């Protein structure tokens, strides 16, 4: 009310833009401590960031902030703008090259949202030690005539068998996310790709699949674990599309200290058991999915 | 009835005591009722408490069942089963569901607690194929066995101290597996209460199963000190005093409350003092009431005792007076009793004597009416009574005899003597016994054994006589039978040797006294043995009987015909009616000739007409100068002489006979010795056919007896047969003949000659005959086809089947048979057809007179025709003239044997003869010079 009376309606919008471009930027550990606040960029995705103020990554970053002695702030983003919100630059990928362009406001200090470590991402970001495992699966409605694959001797055989199931069926994907078909060699091979664009929320993939928008869908394991419980009996996992993936917390390249501090914190909560409690809280059943990962972590 | 006032005044203490007693009883009853109610309330409270506690345990167990059921129907299980049904792989889908289930199970284990303590040990999800899908917690999945279609009540495992619940898991209404929860059984101890105090306190514990395990609230472990196995057998829901030898059970109440749906019982032990507080038992009130009641009864008793004492004093005085009177009466009564007792004893003695007398009388009466005739007389032998048997015996009625003398029955010839003797002996000694003849009413004299017994009166004099007549008929019959068996021949009924000898001795004495002669005739039936062997013993016995009858008819009444055995009869002629020996001999010869004539008459033996002759030896005697044995021996020797003279003759004893008998014994001894030494020779008489060819020979026995004259051939055979030497003699002859055949086989002139060997009936019937012949043939190597056994008709017709069988066996070996002396015996066409013979031999007795006697000629012709009819060859023996040979040849007889061709000769001359005969065929036989003793050389 104060600002309305002081600046008038038209000048209020411009001021807000200036404030946003100058007062907020990504910072390394010292600056964050100096600022007294850790800004956590999160995407509503699975139980990493639930959208209701909690989630695996939310609680972990809150703990991290506490360990730094700073306050915590959750900044929501989406898969299309999440890197831009961290680095202040937009990401362009063309022919395998990744370029940062433009100048945008930096909204946070760290991305922690079940963020997959992909090669192109690693070229522009610093990643912490793995915080979570993942894998991309091929999903189908329960009534689909396709039968899940039989477990092979190794994952690569399973992936091959799974991809053969797709054939000419339509496949629901979400670009620029972990469900981007380009990451798994599914583009240009005759697959009827249905890009989900109504939302950048991976949680909507299964509802869209059940809504008949495609015959098949890609889905990451964390989402799949939740959806198998949520939509039990209505969907089925046909098989893996990818090798096991690693999720980690991402930092700007110029914030290595902050990354190191996070790694230290991460090791600390793993040793104390807080990490496991978070896992069991938000992803019950994930341990059996990736037993080696969690065995290594808990050990 | 209302007592009057005075009565009440007299009994006021008793009335006061009664009132007090009523008052106390009312109080005691009130106290008792109160106590009972209090205890009932306490019991009800304990029962209710235990029931509540048991219900808590049951609820806990029920919750376990519900929990398992909830888990079985949980969303996580359903999701897993759904995804499994969709075919999702364990690696990329189902593992997530398994994780959900694990988390659910883990949370359940952590959540479930009892009084703050987690009690769930383990939860497992097992597929129906037995594969464990999820197992969370400590321990392992309990054994499920058959998967239940519905949730099962909790299962108590006392060994593991666990509560196991199995709940079925369904997917689309199909049983696919089960949830198994395992809870800590010891958690139930949290539900129990325990309180200790001095009186024993209050204890609750759970009995598991049969009481061998238990849970107490003190600690969650078995408390065996507390548990008594018998507690598990207490009736349910009934408060019972605890009974146990264990310490701490005294004064405790026990209550067993079963836990529904589980092998558990809630056991409550409460001290009686604590349960009922200070309340005394109801019986205590009764005890209190009993005390005044006892006092009351004692008061009443005391009062009655006092009254009784006074009464007793009065009674004592009265009884003392009466006792005095009674004592006097007793003395009198004792005397009376003694008197009566003496009378009774006397009476008893007399009664016993009377009974004995009656018994004796009954016995006497029974004895008197026995099966023996009895009479009772007076001292003068006049009849008083007779019994029924005597009446039947004598033919008199009793009334006819009473008063009569026993002399009436006397039938003795010497009447006065025996009867007088009986009377005298009876009167003197009181007894007599002996054989008498009883004369009956009809006049018959019956032999009886009489015993006379005197009956004495009190003074010892004979008052009566009892006379018993015993039946002697059986004894007489037995004696007669014995006599008959001892002295008479059973077959003919004739006296035997014993009687004959006795009577002969009597005759000797008589002869000496009267100067007369007597004679012993030894009669022997000729050919009896042959008859017996051929026609059988039955006909032989018949012949003996008929001959005996004929002998009896030939002699006088004073003479004796006896049988000594076999066919030997001895006749004793006691009175020959002559005082000189010539007259006596003539008379004896006449009788003997008569005997021969009678015996020779045809006899019908069961339809078989038979003529028999007898040979009789006679020995005369006229005093006792000769021993009986000698006399019999002489008669026997004379008979033997008659036999050797041709039978059917009478011979008187001559001293030379004795020498002949001795000579015969010597022959037997020498023959036995020479057989043993093989000192027997064979001569061979040729047999020639109608072409003049030598076809064989008959082996004839020669006995070169050393130091003595050789007996006749017939005598040799008779001696051999009677002495049993015929078997070894026959064996030796047959073996010699077989060896001779083997010898001949080496000579071309004699190789094909047959050799005939004679066989007697005794040999044929001998058991080992066939086997000996067969072995001898094998041993010597003789050709059995050249052997010919000549058998006579001397074998027993009754054993004809056995003879045929033996001949058949030998014939199968190749040996042939010739029927010797055919026509001289009992030739029967019926068995002639059956005998397996090859040849008939015409006896030389027919051949001898075949030219001169038409009967012999007819017999010879018949035999030849019979041979042709039966397909048998015929040989004639005893051919001595050409006329005889020509006659026989004309009738068809083709083989001959006799002096016309050759006499019997030793082996070596026979060989020369045969060689010569084979080269020169004689037109007429030239008699072979040399000794000629043809013997039926027996095999």
From TrEMBL, chain A:
Leader sequence residues: 1-26
Record-given protein name: Transporter substrate-binding domain-containing protein
Chain ranges of the Solute-binding protein family 3/N-terminal domain: 37-286
InterPro entries registered for this protein in UniProt: Solute-binding_3/MltF_N
Alphabetized UniProt keyword annotations: Signal
Stored Pfam families: SBP_bac_3
TrEMBL record, chain B:
PAS domain segment(s): 374-413
A Pfam family that the UniProt record links to this protein: PAS_9
Domain EAL: residue ranges: 664-918
Protein name: EAL domain-containing protein
Residue intervals of the PAC domain: 432-484
Highest taxon above the source species: Bacteria
Transmembrane segments: 12-32
Coiled-coil segments: none
